[in-house]
Predict the structure of Zinc-finger domain-containing protein.
Amino acid sequence: MMHYSEQEWMKYVKNELDKDVREEYEDHLYSCDQCLEVYLMAVEVEEAELPVISNEVDFTNLVMAQIAETKKDKPQKQKIGKKKKSIYQSAFFHYSIAAAVTILLMTTGVFQSITQYAENVQNPNLQEQRTSLTEGLVDKTFAWMDSLEGKKKEVDK
Ligand SMILES: [Zn+2]
């Protein structure tokens, strides 16, 4: 049986062979343990020759900086192409609306009442108590609104 030399396996690992030759090497690899060992050695040698990233943090920062640069470039190109693009179509606008709505819901206590509702479902015994509390708040709110209307009417007079 004819075997391939270490130099030949290096060529194979470095992808320096023609497709037909590569296939011959691969066929031989399946049937020859001796050459498989040489091939694995060649792979290790090739891996050792690959450039080593000396400082991973610097490398990450470099990549992130390049991504940031790419993102900066894109909107400028869009402005040149579509100057009349409405602000309502921009993703930032929708993001701002979503953020504003979230803050609004949080401050007006909608999330809190959803949480309370969930608690009521879990504890039916508490439901009556909660309902009366809510009714009391609603009554107070209506009373407050009535008093406001009353004041407004006084002003109108
Ligand atoms: Zn062999």
Q: What stands out?
A: The chain is about 80% helix and 0% strand. The helical segments are 6-13, 19-31, 33-49, 56-81, 91-107, 110-122, 124-156.
